[in-house]
UniProtKB/TrEMBL annotation:
Keyword tRNA-binding: no
Name under which the protein is recorded: D-amino-acid dehydrogenase
The FAD dependent oxidoreductase domain, residue ranges: 4-396
GO CC terms of this entry: cytoplasm
GO molecular function: oxidoreductase activity
């Protein structure tokens, strides 16, 4: 089987890359070992984070570091046996998260973020999936005045520097927007620019359906078999056949380094794990917006499947057994924030976020191989940046002018 391009990895990023290449007139084969959109792309909080110009950094305040060292928080957890292997990544991540470094990264990162809503809007319109998008934004809610003052001041700076829009919610305004939240909350911050997704898997499937409608093909196969085959790239499919393509795009998310290491690259990719669980609301309770409990470090999002409770980051070896302790810590607190009823999932879901120490994705041509392209490392913003990344990669592969300067995100930045 021959095709113009092979995309390995069918998460939301890989699907978007394949779709944009197909739209650009290329014949594309999308390959994954499992079902499209069924891994990391399924388990997010459903945010297209237009406000997310500052990627999630490593805290530098002393109090947070002490809390994390005790390893009993909701927003962070780690496996002791993973720390020696993760230490170089964590040190580099901490250094890049210093205020001056983080600000410089944000100015580069904002060039991607500013297009996230418009690019998803375009794909969702073509895919007939606009019913999955909600334009209510999302909220941070506060329990203490100090945290509210700090976050509102930060939001004002971001409005000044990046034009991001928000509303400061006093108690009355918060109760008007979310009458079923804990009445002891003192206020909130409503980010109004972001779009939310009520079914992230449904969005992935809609983009995949459009890709196939345009003539693209999806096949199950072993991405680890991707290799040069003469002047082409080959991959072995599940039925044993070999597919050949002129270009190959690696969009394997948290598993990308398994392949790139074999190809001779040593990219500093690490994994942050996260958990979620769906709940049925009690009685007639309704959650109108996704909500972050700022001081406690968990997130509630209204989804088709129920109210989704997501946890923060867990640092562990990839493939280590589930340890959903953050979910266990968050659940009783979340039930005081919003009236959650019975669990709707048989067990907690676990996903892996692919992260780089400078908090920016790896997008662009592989330095050592012709016609090989990388598209992974989006960390917490895989859904947010999928449509932007897909268009960028398609334009690079097709030799077109890229609508966002790809230089800051190039694989070559790591040497």
């Amino acid at each position: 089987m021959r095709t113009d391009a092979i995309v390995v990895g069918a998460g939301i990023v890989g699907i978007s890359v394949a779709l944009h290449l197909q739209k650009a007139g290329r014949s594309v084969l999308l390959v994954d070992r499992g079902q499209p959109g069924g891994e990391t792309s399924y388990g997010n909080a459903g945010l297209i984070q237009r406000e997310g110009v500052y990627p999630y950094g490593f805290p530098h305040d002393f109090g947070a570091l002490i809390r994390y060292a005790m390893n009993n928080t909701i927003d962070a957890h780690y496996h002791w046996n993973a720390i020696p292997k993760l230490a170089p990544f964590l040190w580099s991540y901490w250094m890049h998260s210093r205020a001056s470094q983080h600000e410089a990264i944000a100015h580069k990162y904002a060039t991607l973020i500013e297009h996230c809503v418009t690019e998803h809007d375009a794909l969702a319109q073509e895919a007939g999936a606009t019913d999955l998008l909600r334009r209510k934004g999302w909220m941070k809610v506060f329990r203490t005045q100090a945290q509210q003052d700090e976050r509102l001041a930060e939001a004002e700076r971001w409005k000044r520097d990046y034009g991001l829009n928000h509303r400061a919610l006093d108690v009355a305004a918060l109760r008007a927007e979310e009458p079923h939240l804990d009445q002891s909350l003192i206020g909130g911050l409503h980010w109004t620019d972001p779009v939310t997704v009520i079914d992230p898997l449904g969005l992935s499937k809609a983009y995949l359906a459009l890709f196939e409608k345009l003539g693209g093909r999806f096949a199950q196969g072993d991405a680890g078999t991707l290799a040069q085959d003469g002047d082409r790239w080959s991959v072995t499919l599940a039925d044993g056949t070999k597919a050949l393509g002129m270009d190959a795009i690696v969009a394997l998310g948290p598993w990308a380094d398994v392949l790139t290491n074999r190809l001779g690259y040593r990219l500093p990719l690490a994994v942050k794990r996260g958990y979620h669980m769906h709940y049925k609301p009690l009685g007639n309770a309704v959650l109108n917006h996704p909500v972050l409990d700022t001081e406690r470090g968990y997130f509630l999002a209204p989804m088709r499947q129920g109210v989704r409770l997501t946890t923060g980051a867990e640092f562990a070896n990839r493939g280590a057994p589930k340890t959903p302790v953050q979910l266990a810590r968050a659940e009783p607190i979340a039930k005081t924030l919003f009236p959650l009823g019975e669990r709707l999932d048989a067990e907690p879901w676990l996903g892996n976020r692919p992260c780089t120490p400078d908090m920016m994705p790896i997008i662009g041509p592989a330095p050592k191989h012709r016609n090989l392209w990388f598209s992974f490392g989006h960390a917490h913003h895989g859904l947010t940046l999928a449509a932007v990344t897909g268009r960028m990669v398609a334009e690079m592969v097709s030799g077109q002018k890229v609508f966002v300067d790809p230089t800051p995100f190039a694989p070559a930045r790591f040497g």
